[in-house]
Design a protein that fits this description.
The complex is a heterotrimer of chains A (about 250), B (about 120) and C (about 550). With about 250 residues, chain A is mainly alpha-helical. Helix content of chain A is about 70%, strand content about 0%. Chain A has a single domain, classed as Four Helix Bundle (Hemerythrin (Met), subunit A), CATH 1.20.120.80. Classes of the chains: A mainly alpha (about 250), B mainly alpha (about 120), C mainly alpha (about 550). At the A-B interface, helix 1, helix 2, helix 4 and helix 9 of A face helix 1, helix 2 and helix 3 of B.
Chain lengths: ~250, ~120, ~550
């Protein structure tokens, strides 16, 4: 596999490709795989199975959201409207940009451009950190408003919105209590998402260091590819979280 | 002494290690850029559409756009468009079981109070 | 050199000259670290075997204490709180630390790569990580136990677990969360290995049914376990911060927890039983010298059980306040699961028909499995019927039902598998007559313990109470007496298997004259399993192929 593009040629006799593999013992080739192709396929399949468990892990929370949103729709609308759409939109764009950089990074690894790969990994990290920065700002605001579920949760903004300069209709007290469930799901879902991003950023530091060392510039791109899958999965979770949490009902209710 | 390497032809019944005969396809930065721009435009549409009162269609549109975005991320950023059938079926299975979780649980919640849901 | 003696197919090499192979996976490297840092699937299987045996006897001790308390109608041994902790620890340890990893993590780990003709599982390091996660989960469970125990029942039912108990729920939940990831990684490894590591010629329908069963169970592990994980995280958050998602006073729905919990925990029942069914397929075929009847049907029934397993969980909640219409749907779907299970039982029975049956120990355990699992499965159909369920659920009937499936089914299958592959794992035979005695003791003890419980439950004795009306005492005494016999039945294998490690007869490569790839290599196997990549050129369970092979070998040597 002298050029990564070579394997895309469908007319190339496969035995020759494999013949080469047998003789080129790359350091990353682990002994129990017959061929490097097999190792690579196994790695990416394993990563996809792991992402399957992630779908089900987040799936439980998405279901809880679906249930309570239907049960307590007015509370969900009122609470959702306290989230900032500009920040949410900006964060979505930032995360998509981060994912784009990651995708270009994968390409850079595949065509063995070391410097470009390192730059792209750094950009991915920077946008990831920026996302978390905005997220921290949003969390902090909720903390100051006592909108964090628990003993200090305060519903007065929803029972008496006029006192806070809001034009929303006030909620009856029992419905206003249900905003706590919205905020819990908000914190649980975005928090779990942020936790995945923090883990991802830690991995990015490690991968950047290895890429800088030149580990991924000789045709061995599996770690970059598989991390890319993880990072894009985190993107996808946010792609759903953004409309579900921020945009329940933004047009005035009458 | 036969080596596993000889059974790599797609039509060889003895080829079991890579039956789909998947080949590694490289997505170009240009393709990535198109996808990226589409995602940004979709994000804008999602945010904008939320401010227009469309009744029941609001959440439907928001989710439809989100699904579209997720699909193009999966297909291109995650290279699934060029992956083996096995990977495609794996992803399908994941979403299928998630839908089982949602719909089967919903049979309980919806029918607990007919009409009030 | 080998000759069949009487009514057995056991063929051991000449003991005066036979030796354990000089090079094998056990003596390949030395020292504790070579075990703790190993990537070899066979060594990890042994590590798992030791740890699950440890937890099995802890869980068993709690079972003994429960039966001791129930010997008399009065609460005289322990207080009610302590009794609650007993059955909770018994459930948590037996389910999450014994039954879920029992066959997959030991026999599956050891055998799947060999059966597929591979050198190892796809991800050896993740395999080792899985064992460490299991150990951490186990240690946390022990910590919860030592710190004062948990008394939620193994189901962690809300709002009991979130609002009314001051025991170590979070520690136990964390333990199960971590042990759950051990099981996810095992399942993930198996799926990738089965898809990507098969040797040339090993097509899907040439794989042993043991592998098919593990494939189905792995799907459940990968797709189900994360839902349990998130449910337990939510319980922990509810306890720590009072977030209200399961709290009715704040608008949450306690039943939501049960939906999420049983979405995993019903498929988990199949995680526990499917690998056992795989063992039974191998054993039945070997000791009746026949290809499994309806191989394809048995293979697909495993996958069907796995798939249907995701559609029936609500039958654990019929009396909990779910809607009647939904309960009706789930009750009907529950009947569906009985079909693939019955397919398996009938196909095993047809395999036995006109077979050359011999009664070695693994076969005795398998017969135990077939009988007890059938009773357990059929009583499950009673419980799945809406009307019967109202009468029988939360009584000793349900306790007897799931013990028939889990203990009568899975534990019998586990012991069948351990005996069947013991010569392969260690290179030595277990003592034949003692092991047959143990198998019979287990069967008698089991029935004596749990058959009375069906009657108790039918008469209305509720589960999870430490006192009961005096008229139930006779049956409870029978049950406790049976538990004592059962305890002896489980102690025996541990003792004589340990004995056989040093004093057992040398087993040779293929003591059972079985056809699987694992029997064509030396026992114990080499670290790399095969000296050259095998090529599968025959169907699974092809005894003619084996006879030809043996004949040719004799010709060459002689």
């Amino acid at each position: 596999m002298d050029s990564a593009l070579a394997t895309t040629d469908p007319n190339m006799p496969e035995t020759e490709v494999y013949g080469e593999h047998e003789h080129v013992a790359l350091p990353q080739h682990r002994h129990h795989f017959e061929t490097e192709e097999q190792q690579r396929e196994a790695g990416s399949f394993g990563m996809w199975l792991f992402l399957l468990t992630e779908i089900m892990f987040f799936g439980g929370m998405f279901f809880a959201y679906l249930l309570y949103r239907n049960w307590y729709y007015p509370a969900f609308v009122a609470a959702s409207n306290q989230l900032s759409v500009p920040i949410g939109t900006a964060n979505t764009a930032i995360l998509i940009t981060s994912g784009f950089c990651m995708a270009v990074g994968v390409w850079a690894a595949e065509v063995r451009k070391r410097t470009l790969l390192v730059v792209m990994l750094i950009l991915t990290t920077v946008f990831g950190v920026a996302f978390l920065g905005f997220k921290y700002d949003e969390y902090h605001e909720k903390y100051e408003l006592h909108h964090i579920p628990g003993n200090n949760f305060n519903v007065s903004m929803f029972t008496n919105p006029a006192a806070y300069g809001l034009k929303e209709d006030p909620l009856p007290p029992d419905m206003a209590q249900k905003t706590q469930i919205f905020f819990f799901l908000y914190f649980a879902m975005t928090g779990m998402h942020a936790l995945h991003m923090i883990i991802g950023i830690a991995l990015l530091f490690w991968l950047t260091w290895r890429a800088h060392r030149g580990d991924f510039s000789s045709g061995y791109v599996a770690p970059i590819e598989n991390f890319g899958l993880y990072w894009h999965f985190v993107d996808i979770v946010w792609i759903f979280l953004f409309p579900l949490l921020y945009l329940i009902n933004r047009h005035p209710m009458h | 002494m036969a080596h596993a390497g000889i059974h790599t032809d797609a039509n060889d019944p003895l080829n079991v290690t890579n039956p789909e005969h998947a080949q590694h396809h490289i997505v170009t930065p240009l393709q990535y850029t198109f996808v990226y721009l589409t995602l940004l435009v979709c994000t804008g549409i999602t945010a904008g559409a939320a401010y227009v009162d469309l009744g029941w269609a609001n959440p439907v549109i928001a989710l439809a756009i989100a699904c579209f975005k997720a699909v193009i991320v999966i297909l291109f950023f995650m290279h699934v468009a060029y992956q083996s059938r096995l990977i495609k079926m794996t992803i399908g299975a994941g979403f299928f079981i998630f839908l089982v979780l949602v719909t089967m649980t919903m049979t309980d919640y919806i029918s607990r109070a007919w009409g009030l849901w | 050199m080998s000759a069949a003696i009487g009514n057995t197919i056991l063929s051991l090499p000449d003991q005066s000259t036979a030796q354990i192979p000089k090079r094998n996976y056990i003596n390949n490297e030395h020292g504790l670290l070579s075990w703790l840092l190993t990537g070899d699937h066979k060594r990890i299987a042994i590590l798992y075997l030791i740890s699950i045996t440890f937890f099995f006897f802890i869980g068993g001790a709690f079972a003994g204490l429960i039966r001791l308390e129930l010997l008399t109608p009065q609460p005289d041994l322990v207080s009610s709180d302590t009794y609650n902790k007993f059955f909770t620890m018994h459930g948590i340890i037996m389910i999450f630390l014994f039954l879920v990893p029992s066959v997959p993590a030991t026999l599956g780990n050891f055998l799947i790569p060999i059966m597929l003709g591979a050198k190892d599982l796809a991800f050896p390091k993740i395999n080792l990580l899985s064992w460490y996660l299991y150990v951490i989960g186990g240690t946390l469970t022990l910590a919860a136990l030592v710190l004062g125990g948990v008394d939620t029942g193994w189901t962690f039912t809300t709002p009991l677990s979130t609002h009314y108990l001051n025991t170590h729920v979070i520690t136990a939940a964390m333990a199960i969360f971590i042990a759950g990831f051990a099981s996810i990684f095992t399942g993930l490894n198996f799926i990738v290995t089965i898809h990507r590591m098969r040797c040339p010629g090993m097509t899907w329908f040439r794989m042993p049914l043991f592998v098919w069963a593990h494939y189905a169970a792995s799907l459940l592990m990968v797709l189900g376990t994360p839902v349990l994980a998130i449910a337990l995280v939510l319980v922990a958050l509810e306890r720590l911060f009072g977030i209200g998602v399961f709290d009715p006073t704040k608008g949450g729905d306690p039943l939501l927890f049960q939906h999420l919990f049983w979405f995993y925990s019903h498929p988990a029942v199949y995680i526990m039983i499917l690998p056992g069914m795989g063992v039974i397929s191998e054993v039945i075929s070997t000791f009746s010298r026949k290809r499994i009847f309806g191989y394809t049907a048995v293979a697909f029934s495993s996958v069907a059980i796995a798939l249907f397993g995701f559609f029936v969980w609500e039958h654990h909640m019929f009396i909990m306040g779910v809607s009647n219409y939904s309960a009706l749907v789930f009750s009907l779907l529950t009947m569906l699961v009985a079909v693939p299970s019955a397919i398996k039982i009938f196909n095993w029975a047809f395999t036995l028909q006109k077979g050359s049956i011999t009664f070695e120990t693994p076969m005795l355990y398998s017969f135990g499995f077939m009988g007890l699992f059938t009773i357990g499965g059929l009583t499950g159909v009673f419980l799945g019927s809406l009307g019967m369920d109202i009468h029988l659920t939360e009584t000793y009937f349900i306790v007897a039902h799931f013990h028939f499936v889990m203990v009568g089914g899975m534990l019998m299958a586990f012991l069948a598998g351990i005996h069947f592959w013991w010569p392969k794992m260690t290179g030595r035979m277990y003592p034949e007559s003692l092991s047959k005695l143990a198998a019979v003791t287990t069967f008698i003890g089991f029935n004596l313990t749990f058959l009375p419980q069906f009657i108790l439950g039918y008469l209305g004795m509720p589960r999870r109470y430490h006192a009961y009306p005096p008229e139930f005492q006779v049956l409870n005494v029978l049950s406790t007496a049976g538990a004592t016999v059962l305890g002896v039945g489980y102690m025996l294998p541990m003792l004589y298997l340990a004995w056989s490690l040093k004093y057992g007869a040398i087993a040779g490569d293929n003591p059972w004259q079985a056809t699987g790839l694992e029997w064509q290599i030396q026992s114990p196997p080499l670290t790399e399993n095969f000296t050259e990549t095998p090529i599968m050129d025959h169907e699974a369970y092809d005894y003619e192929w084996l006879a030809n092979k043996t004949k040719n070998e004799v010709t060459t040597v002689g």
